[in-house]
């Protein structure tokens, strides 16, 4: 029996690129992309444009294994490039247009990118980045993506540069061959994307994923969210975030209508929802906040399904979202796992619960999607933690979603892709009795005081409850006796009255009833603003450095070491 | 870049068996299986029962690579075995309980089956089959599946046999270990199923599929049919047909409620639909006919999505189905492709068309599902046929759905798994201008007369239009001059009046206006009944033999060979 094994016909590499050929047949006449008043494509047009673009890339000398980068918000070009670049055989590197020139130059040099597609509003940024290249390093070619929906006054003057741009995006499409045979991967393990992590804890790392992972996660994401045929999908998520959580490829499977937008303010989003009858959107928590805090928001005509990731939505946010007609799903993903791979799968029985109870359940990250082989929460020796909702461990994952590795970084790769066959996420979670997991912290954010682990997130949650606190971040401060003690960086709300401004002592007292003694911050540092990454995440590694330089607190040792905690 | 390749974490074998672990968490409290008045399981019970069963199989000595067979209609046990057998590491062989003892004994011997789970109503059949085993061949062990929903009078007396049955299904479950670690495949290319084709053209062949194929097709079938979370799925399809078109595994992904039934008459099916609020069902065309021809049928309360395969549903059937509230989808599959892999994907624009036009479009088999890499219709030299709806060629397929091969049959395997990397289906089709294909015939059913290919199905379609014809099958009769001529075998409807019974000449005249001259049957043979397989397909190979023995017709050669056809 085992003599029969894979053959030429059944081992055709899995790749999401085959989705587009099919979409051109099944949904050929249906709208694929809408953008502003001027751009509307059908799936056969999108298919043809991608083939033409891939053919032009080949003509420019782009070959299998080359890296081609894109710096753009979620425009039609950004969507097409998710297919066209890998169709040319190249590896697609989506760049974050909110990075600074220095970070971009580091990434471009590290990736050895041959060519960068750049949105006109990021042109100045990329030129600054290229100007930072050392003399001896070859710069990538630039292709300009114009945008006719922009008014001339919206386009800033370019910095002076010797850099010459030979091609525009539409020229490449126009002179491409619509009958181009796109370059199939030799193996489904061939790389398709190279995305750099935004790095809250360290320098950016280049995450490489293969065609197989992109194929499986596309399917998995459609099934897990029950996406029906021909949804209307609004791009409130930046596609540079982990390839738009795989939905650029997924929309070609179900023939969705992609509503692209550059503007992400509440009036624009509500207007697009109403005009186009949006059914689905993914959104970072911040976008969801913008929508729900918009004071002119009125209930939606039809339900809009929203998938959000990152920190779990608080009960008040979920209640408000449901009142307006948003059906919010919550998941967990990371660039290394090519999108959202754990989701808080809803159970029918939960429909009957109170809003608070629903929010508590929904705030948990949940269970692996069906296409992920295994997810576990493990202790230091790799053993599964108890399903008690209390014992913390690290989330580990196995399955097709796991990256090939970090580009040119064997040490970092080996740190998370362990010999025991698991990918270590660096996220700390508990496993609840019902098998749903809930994230507590990043590994590096765990503070160990007197041998006791504490989650900085839990301490922060208490600080956020204080009426005067706008932002809070808790990190470890080294301590001669205790090893570490919790140190809180806090920014206060604007326009507080004099008497509303708390002292360090008042903040600590506020925590007393709400936290075990050892978790109460021993240091409170007030700041006007906490340092953040370009994607808005608080940079704990910066604060950790500050706390590190403070040195040890002179705390009195406890009277009875075994029975009390500081 | 290409140094990064698969690693231990991301190369975990794809297998549908992981779906069940997850279903036990996500849908643990929800109903998994309902059967009669007495059986109702939740997904955690199904999970536990499957683990216990797999553990008992291991205790009985079943090992990786052994074949374990099942002979049962779509009962709860049949559903559980789709998971439990491969969870023990064994290969699952679903047997057709409509076969005769001789065919069964041939299959059991060929597969070297170690153990057969047998439904109580098929016990007598399997014992007859085992009695046919030669002395020197080891017989498989039998495990009896009892059914408490049957009345004692429904259970026939057993034939006399020396064969001893040591175990019953429920005993094996009862003594199994619920904490059994199910046996994961070493590779996703390891076999999971061995299903025998029913063989309209030749002796049964053992089709071997791997875990990877089962995983991919499960996902693909859910997406293509837009199956939502927690559907109510009625088992009108026999699971022995290509593993129930992958929906046993698929239902674990979406936490569906499986309604099992042994009876497939119209009143039972309508009653189950109403009682349980059925949302989805797969059905062979004959079951659909039974439902639509039921004279007491009244419109359904809610839409029921029906997926059907095989011959395309005529317009009248589709119209009637829609009137009643069935939403019929139509696809093409075969055991060698582990289910339905081409489907007539519906386009929104078609909603506006007339019923006849809709039926014409829906009768086409359609386009590949998104998970299938490539499908083409090719001529003798492997070139794609014109997209003209006229030029016929053979359907060829590439993708994860293609079988590993036929067990112990290198010749048959090499005939369809060609060196050029394609799987040849043996089905003849045309490709329409819009990229949808339509099946015309089996390769062996094409008749070549005077160098002109004709589709026997098209000739049969005309014969079926005759008001007195009940069944028609057209095969080639050898001819000295023309090579072959079409020969029709016809059975007439019951209770015709004397004057309604047509003569051979009348049948031919009926065809004159409707077919090209060369396609009009030159021979008409009336039969009371046409020979059929156990699954109800007409056995053309039997008729072909009869026609072959008739020898050449003495037809006059044409006067002008180049300008006319017989």
UniProtKB/TrEMBL annotation, chains A, B:
The keyword Transcription does not apply. It is found in: Cytoplasm, Cytosol. GO terms for cellular component: cytosol. Residues 458-537 form the AMP-binding enzyme C-terminal domain. The keyword ATP-binding applies. InterPro entries: AMP-bd_C, AMP-bd_C_sf, AMP-binding_CS, AMP-dep_synth/lig_dom, ANL_N_sf. Residues 21-407 form the AMP-dependent synthetase/ligase domain. Its main location: cytoplasm. PROSITE patterns: AMP_BINDING. One of its GO terms (molecular function) is ATP binding. Coiled coil: none annotated. Gene3D superfamilies: 3.30.300.30, N-terminal domain of ligase-like. SUPFAM superfamilies: Acetyl-CoA synthetase-like (SSF56801). Keywords: ATP-binding, Ligase, Nucleotide-binding. It comes from the Eukaryota. Belongs to the ATP-dependent AMP-binding enzyme family. This is 4-coumarate--CoA ligase. It comes from Vicia faba (Broad bean).
């Amino acid at each position: 029996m085992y003599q029969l094994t894979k053959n030429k016909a059944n081992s055709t590499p899995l790749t999401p690129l085959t989705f587009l050929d099919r979409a051109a047949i099944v949904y050929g006449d249906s709208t694929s992309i809408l953008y502003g008043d001027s751009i509307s494509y059908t799936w056969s047009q999108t298919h043809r444009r991608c083939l033409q673009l891939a053919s032009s890339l080949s003509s420019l000398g782009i070959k299998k294994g080359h890296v081609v980068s894109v710096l753009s918000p979620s425009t039609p070009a950004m969507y097409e490039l998710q297919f066209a670049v890998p169709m040319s055989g190249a590896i697609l590197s989506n760049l974050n247009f909110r990075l600074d020139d220095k970070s971009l130059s580091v990434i471009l040099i590290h990736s050895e990118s041959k060519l960068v597609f750049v949105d006109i509003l990021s042109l100045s940024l990329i030129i600054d980045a290229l100007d930072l290249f050392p003399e001896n390093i070859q710069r990538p070619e630039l292709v300009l993506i114009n945008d006719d929906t922009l008014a001339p006054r919206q386009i800033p003057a370019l910095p002076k540069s010797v850099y010459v741009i030979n091609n525009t995006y539409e020229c490449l499409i126009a002179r491409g061959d619509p009958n181009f045979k796109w370059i199939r991967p030799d193996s489904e393990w061939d790389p398709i994307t190279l995305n750099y992590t935004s790095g809250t804890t360290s320098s950016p790392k280049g995450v490489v994923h293969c065609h197989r992972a992109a194929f499986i996660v596309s399917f998995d994401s459609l099934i897990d969210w029950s996406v029906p045929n021909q949804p209307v999908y609004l791009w409130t998520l930046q596609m540079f975030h982990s390839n738009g959580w795989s939905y650029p490829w997924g929309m070609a499977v179900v023939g969705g209508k992609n509503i692209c937008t550059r503007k992400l303010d509440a009036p624009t989003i509500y207007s697009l929802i109403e005009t186009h009858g949006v059914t689905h959107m993914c959104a970072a928590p911040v976008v969801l906040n913008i929508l729900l805090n918009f004071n002119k928001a009125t209930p939606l005509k039809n339900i809009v399904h929203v998938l959000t990731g990152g920190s779990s939505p608080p009960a008040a946010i979920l209640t408000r979202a449901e009142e307006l007609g948003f059906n919010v799903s919550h998941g967990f993903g990371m660039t290394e796992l090519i999108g959202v791979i754990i989701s808080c799968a809803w159970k029918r029985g939960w429909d009957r619960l109170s809003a608070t109870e629903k929010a508590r359940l929904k705030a948990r990250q949940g269970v692996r999607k069906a296409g992920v082989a295994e997810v576990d929460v493990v202790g230091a020796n790799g053993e599964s933690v108890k399903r008690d909702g209390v014992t913390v461990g690290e989330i580990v994952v196995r399955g097709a979603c796991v990256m090939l590795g970090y580009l040119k970084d064997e040490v970092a790769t080996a740190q998370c892709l362990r010999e025991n066959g698991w990918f270590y996420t660096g996220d700390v979670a508990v496993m609840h009795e019902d098998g749903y997991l809930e994230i507590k912290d990043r590994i590096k954010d765990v503070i160990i005081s007197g041998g006791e682990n504490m989650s900085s997130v839990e301490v922060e949650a208490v600080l956020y409850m204080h009426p005067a606190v706008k932002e809070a971040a808790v990190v470890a401060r080294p301590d001669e006796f205790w090893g570490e003690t919790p140190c809180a960086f806090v920014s206060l709300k604007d326009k507080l009255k004099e008497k509303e401004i708390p002292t360090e002592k008042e903040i600590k007292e506020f925590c007393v009833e709400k936290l075990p003694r050892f978790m109460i911050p021993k240091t409170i540092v007030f700041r006007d603003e906490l340092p953040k990454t370009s994607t808005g995440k608080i940079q704990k590694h910066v604060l950790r450095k500050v706390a590190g330089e403070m040195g040890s607190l002179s705390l009195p040792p406890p009277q009875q070491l075994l029975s009390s905690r500081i």
